[in-house]
Each structure stands twice: as C-alpha cells, then as structure tokens.
Write a structure and sequence with these properties.
5-stranded antiparallel sheet, alpha+beta, 3-stranded antiparallel sheet, 10 strands, 48% helix
C-alpha cells in the first residue's frame, strides 16, 4: 500500500543504499585489481627472479575477472533492490519467486552446455591456466591462443587453421609456454670415442654459450651436460639440457648443437660410425664365406 510520504521515503532509502552498495563494491574491486597489477610489476622488476612476470597478462586476467564481478554485483544489487521495493509497495512476491524458480530450472536443463562452458571459462581465468599468446595442447589440437572468452577459446594451429573450442569440452590442457621450457640436446659421436673427453668439450661449449649475452638472457641457468645417454648402431649420444624462458628453447637448442658439433670436430672427436649390410639378392649376399657387414667411419670434418 502506497502511503505518502512514508512509502516514498522507504523507496528512496532502498535506492540510495543500492547505489551506495554498488559504488563501494566497484571501488573495492578496482582497488583489488590495482593492487594485483602493482604486485605483478614489483615481481617483474625483481632482479633476483629470472622467470619474469607478464604484467600485461596479469592486467588482462584481473581486468576480465573485475569486469565479470562488477556485472554480477550490479545484477544482484538491482534484483534485491527491486524485490525490496515491490515488498514496500505491497506487491506479491510469491508468484514472482515461483516463476523465477521454474524459469531457472527450465533454463538450467535447456542450457546445460552453455552453463558448463561459462563455469569452465570462469575457473580457467581465475586459475590462469592459459592466456592469449600461449601455445597449448588441448588433446585434439595444438596451437597458439588468440582469444579467450568465458564460453570459447580460439586457437590457431601450426597450419594456420583457426579452432573454436568450447571451454566446457576441454578436459585437459597442456601449456607449453608458461613459466619455462627445457632444451634437450643430443650430440652424436662415435661409439668408441672417449666419453670423458667428449663431455669435457661439451661442458666448455655450455659455459661459452651461457656467457654469450645474446643467449644468457634466454636461459635461466647454465646448461648441464648429463653424460652418455645411449650407445646404439655405432653412435654414442651425449645428452645436455638447458632451462630456458618460454618459447626460447628451440633457438638455444640449435645454438648449443651448432657450437657443440663444431667444437667436437675441432677437438678431433670422431663422428658416428655407419654400419651397412650387403644386398641379400646381389653379390656379397649372406651365406657361407659371405661378408656380414661393412663399417664406414664418418669424417668429423664433413
């Protein structure tokens, strides 16, 4: 029942409180975003940390969450304010609540996939599973993330094909560019080469590459020579690894391999030995008195 001026005052108070609550919530959300971005900037400027913090990515992620929280808070405040005004005016709320419950139930059954996609997108953003520019493996496709929304993720694979993947359909995700990558390098030499001498040459190579300013900034620590990985078919493989910044491990691997093989040749360490088997249908086929194999030494200068 509307009574002047009591009813108008009550409605005015509800509107004022709703507006004040919205302003306070939005201010708090903005402060949280600013504090998060400021913390990310301080972490990125810390000289003791070799793994940098992507400030732009933090700002984008917190901005998306802030926008979502502002929208949700506004909708909730408006709904509560409208219901309180209806109660002040004496309008029946029971039919409205019953209709809203039935409508929400129908919407839940009819749009389960959309709700699943939205919830998956929200948790994906909150947990920072991946962002724009990351190379990810979704199980069905590997590509670079070009766009992320609450409902879909847009990927471009290595062939240039665009993939639109619903967030609710992503059961697992492998992020290949988050944090750091490892460059694994295999150096092939002859199976009878001196392992200790080979490892010593490669350790010097790792030290020199790490000392190069061009490559030092791409690596988080000095590359390590792990030792002999395997001996097979006349080849001994010596393995090394380097911990690198995201998306830099391919270049580091190529540099270590190029410099390492050059140093091995200069040190006179023989290359892999190739074993060849005679043609069974032609001269020298296997049989009594036949030659079983021939050995060819690869000249390390080739």
């Amino acid at each position: 029942m509307f009574e002047w001026p009591e009813t108008a005052i009550q409605i005015g108070l509800v509107v004022v409180v709703a507006v004040a609550a919205r302003i306070i919530l939005h201010f708090g959300i903005r402060r949280v975003v600013d504090a998060t971005v400021k913390s990310a900037k301080l972490a990125a400027e810390n000289p003791k940390k070799r793994i940098g913090v992507d400030v732009a990515r933090v700002r984008a992620r917190t901005g998306a969450l802030a926008s979502m929280l502002r929208s949700v808070s506004t909708v909730v405040i408006v709904i509560v304010a409208v219901m309180m005004i209806m109660q002040i005016l004496g309008l029946p709320l029971a039919p409205l609540l019953a209709s809203a419950g039935v409508g929400g139930l129908a919407l839940g059954f009819g749009a389960q996939s959309i709700v699943k996609d939205l919830l998956s997108g929200i948790f994906m953003i909150i947990e920072d599973q991946y962002g724009v520019g990351d190379v990810v493996d979704t199980g069905d496709v590997i590509g670079t993330v070009e766009e992320v929304t609450l409902r879909i993720t847009k990927l471009r694979d290595y062939d240039g094909v665009i993939w639109y993947i619903r967030n609710g359909e992503i059961l697992r995700i492998a992020n290949k560019t988050q944090g750091w990558n490892t460059a694994w390098v295999d150096f092939p030499v002859a199976y009878n080469a001196d392992p200790a001498r080979t490892i010593a040459v490669l350790e010097g190579t790792c030290e020199d590459v790490y000392a190069d300013p061009k490559w030092n900034e791409k690596m988080l620590e000095k590359p390590i020579v792990l030792g002999v990985g395997e001996v097979q078919n006349g080849t001994m493989t010596v393995k090394a690894m380097a911990k690198c910044l995201p998306e830099t491990h391919w270049g580091v691997k190529r540099e270590l391999l190029e410099v390492g093989m050059s140093r091995l040749r200069a040190a006179g360490i023989p290359g892999p030995i190739l074993f060849s088997t005679p043609n069974a249908d032609g001269p020298g086929a296997f049989g009594p008195g036949a030659e079983t194999s021939s050995v060819e030494q690869i000249d390390p200068r080739d």
